[in-house]
Design brief:
Length: about 180
């Protein structure tokens, strides 16, 4: 069976996941630097559970966090995609756009490039009226991506799945609506 490519940019393919992605995905999720804006790194078991939940999203919703592959090398570099938010907050239910890239892929504009392709997919093929993004208030690099892709700052909130005493509890919320034709 051919692997589905959901979006393609000049440098990236956003595609289906394969079992071959599991090992580099686990390595990325175990990297303390990659995970510094999350409560903890992820074990191999936690990565597998996350992988299974991503596959479930595709089965149930037809979209999710896409495996991101560098076209030139064919290497898995992380994920970029769209996902239904699974916690309760005053802005849910909604679809978020998110990304996580291996450290070697940082600073090259891949998150922005892939996120722009996902917005096109979300507003076009998926017909979403709006898309949200959020991150820990201290995660300035992700704020920058949100701004670069045209999202607007909505406010801050305490993430219900992060301990209230954690410096990662306070999150920023960004939103973008479907562009008018």
């Amino acid at each position: 069976m051919a692997m589905a490519i959901y979006a393609e940019t000049s440098r990236l393919r956003l595609r289906d996941w394969s079992d071959a992605d599991l090992e580099p995905f686990a390595r990325m999720n175990a990297d303390a630097e990659v995970m510094r804006y999350f409560p903890a790194t992820m074990s191999g078991e936690a990565t597998r559970a996350f992988y299974e939940s991503i596959l479930r999203d595709f089965r149930e919703d037809g979209f999710g966090f896409y495996a991101a592959e560098e076209k030139e090398s064919g290497e898995f570099i992380g994920f970029i995609g769209l996902r239904r938010v699974t916690f309760e907050a005053d802005f849910t239910p909604c679809v978020e756009i998110g990304w996580r890239l291996r450290r070697e892929s940082w600073g090259r504009g891949y998150a922005t490039e892939g996120a722009e392709a996902c917005l096109e997919l979300g507003f076009g093929e998926l017909g979403l009226p709006e898309i949200y993004s959020f991150t820990a208030e201290v995660n300035q690099p992700s704020w920058n991506v949100m701004r670069k892709i045209g999202m607007s700052f909505v406010g801050t909130f305490d993430h219900p799945r992060v301990s209230a005493d954690s410096p990662l509890c306070k999150h920023v919320l960004y939103r973008i609506g479907k562009p008018a034709l």
